Amino acid sequence: MSDFATLELEKDPRGFATLWLSREDKNNAFNAQMIRELIHALDRLAEDASLRFVLLRGRGRHFSAGADLAWMQQSAALDFNTNLDDAHELGELMYALHRLKMPTLAVVQGAAFGGALGLISCCDMAIGAEDAQLCLSEVRIGLAPAVISPFVVKAIGERAARRYALTAERFSGVRARELGLLAEVYPAAELDAQVEAWVANLLLNSPQALRATKDLLREVDDGELSPALRRYCENTIARIRVSAEGQEGLRAFLEKRRPAWQDNKEPRP
Questions:
Q1: pLDDT for res 69
Q2: Using an 8 Å Cβ cutoff, are 32 and 15 in contact?
Q3: Quick one: 15 exposed, middle or buried, by C-beta within 10 A (0-12, 13-18, 19+)?
Q4: Which helix (H) or strand (E) holds 220?
Q5: Does residue 2 register a pLDDT over 90?
Q6: How confident is the model at residue 71, as a pLDDT?
Q7: Which of 49, 98, 127, 236 is the most exposed place for a label (fewest CB within 10 A)?
Q8: Do 104 and 121 touch, CB atoms closer than 8 A?
Q9: Are 245 and 206 in contact (CB under 8 A)?
Q10: Residue 209 in contact with residue 245, Cβ under 8 Å?
Q11: Which are the contacts of 110, defined by CB distance < 8 A and separation ≥ 6?
Q12: Using H for helix, E for strand and C for coil, what is the string for 8-31?
């Protein structure tokens, strides 16, 4: 499923995909090519109705060291309009990941610097290693975390975003969990096993309901109440109740059996 130079895209027969950042020799730092390939990969994933969810991971020791140094050197020599085009491309990546119809789970180990925090923040959920090192490092090199800032603020809140964007302090996976950026953290040696546990849990859930719930939560956003939002929420539950998966889920619950989308041997709670 993968024909990229900087990425690997693997489809698991159980019905999910893993999108790997794969520039291990560069600590998965991204450049213009990786950004373009990520956009194309997300477009491909969005068109695959068979997928239940997507994992975003980094090959090797690090999730991503942020921007590639050679790419930044090239950017320094570009004029304003060309830099604006580059920023637009990065923005397209972040918004494409944020609005992907299916749930996304980032898995973080090693370093996650600069724009890598944008990728993590754009995912619905993220887990990581306790000893991971994260940093909004842009101000250290005279830049600002501009394109990723809306997503980082949503993920960790305005006050924490101000602190870490202005100080460029490194913080651990444990601290990232305290901030809400990571849902859970584990010893590094246990991370892969815990990924499998998260995968197994997600596979218990209705594929259609996962997508509908992600759409619902995006629409609800900050929870501002309005007649339009009320109508949207009411229509959502009515639609899903009469859908094929909704009907199957209700019947399975009442008949005390597993629904058709579960192919595992774990008992239903």
A1: 82
A2: no
A3: middle
A4: helix 207-220
A5: no
A6: 82
A7: 49
A8: no
A9: yes
A10: yes
A11: 27, 58, 60, 61, 62, 63, 129, 132, 133
A12: EEEEECCCEEEEEECCHHHCCCEC
For 56, the token pair is 């975003």
Residues 19 and 54: beta-carbon distance below 8 Å: yes
Could you read off the pLDDT of 3-50 as tens digits, one per residue?
899 999 999 999 999 999 999 999 999 999 999 999 999 999 999 999
Q: Compute the mean pLDDT over every residue in the chain, rounded to the nearest whole number.
A: 93
pTM of this structure: 0.92
pLDDT over 90 at 223, yes or no: no
Contact 225, 132 (CB under 8 A): no
CA 212 to each of CA 49, 76, 85, 132, 241: distance values in angstroms, whole numbers, following the listed order:
13, 43, 33, 32, 11
| Burial label, 255 (beta-carbon count in 10 A; 0-12, 13-18, 19+) | exposed
- Classified as helix, coil or strand, 159 is helix
Token pair 């291990």 in the structure block, residue: 24
What integer is the mean pLDDT of 209-231?
A: 89
Token representation of residue 256: 């005390």
Token pair of 49 as six digits:
């109705």
Rounded CA-CA distance 72/62 in Å is 19
In the structure encoding, which two tokens stand for residue 128, read together?
């990581």
